[in-house]
Amino acid sequence: MKKIVLTSLFALGLSTAVMAQAATDFASVDTDANGSVSLAEAQVAWPDLTEEAFNAADTDGNGELSADEYDALAAANAAPAQ
Ligand SMILES: [Ca+2]
Ligand SMILES: [Ca+2]
């Protein structure tokens, strides 16, 4: 499942668009500190993040990203260009 998510994120071209973003660790992005990252919170750190990509990263479909879900999204976006 994770590989499918990462592949879809790369397919959306996010990996290169947000390489220069700073402060993208989970605690910084979770600005209301409720333990999950909403789409709005994620888009502060990742302005080019689409709702489609967010939903793809939200593997349990609860509308917010857990730390694990967010880490997978961040790892996909932060991965070195191939
Ligand atoms: Ca939050
Ligand atoms: Ca979730």
Key features?
single chain, 82 residues, mainly alpha, Recoverin, domain 1, 6 helices, 0% strand, binds calcium ion, EF-hand domain-containing protein, EF_Hand_1_Ca_BS, EF-hand-dom_pair, EF_hand_dom, signal
Within CATH, the superfamily carries the name EF-hand
The count of DSSP E runs of length 2 or more, i.e. the number of strands, is: 0
CATH overall fold name: Recoverin, domain 1
Beta-strand proportion: under 5%
Radius of gyration: 11 Å
- Characterize the quaternary organization of these chains: single chain
CATH class descriptor: Mainly Alpha
Protein name: EF-hand domain-containing protein
Keywords: Signal
Signal peptide: 1-22
Domain EF-hand: 45-80
What does this structure look like?
With 82 residues, this protein is an all-alpha fold. It has one domain (2-78): EF-hand (Recoverin, domain 1, Orthogonal Bundle), CATH 1.10.238. The chain contains 6 helices and no strands. Helix 1 packs across helix 6 (67-78). The longest helix has 12 residues, at 67-78. The relative contact order is 0.24. Residues 58, 60, 62, 64-66, 69 line the site of one calcium ion (CA). One calcium ion binds at residues 30, 32, 34, 36-38, 41. Residues 45-80 form the EF-hand domain. Keywords: Signal. Residues 1-22 form the signal peptide. This is EF-hand domain-containing protein.
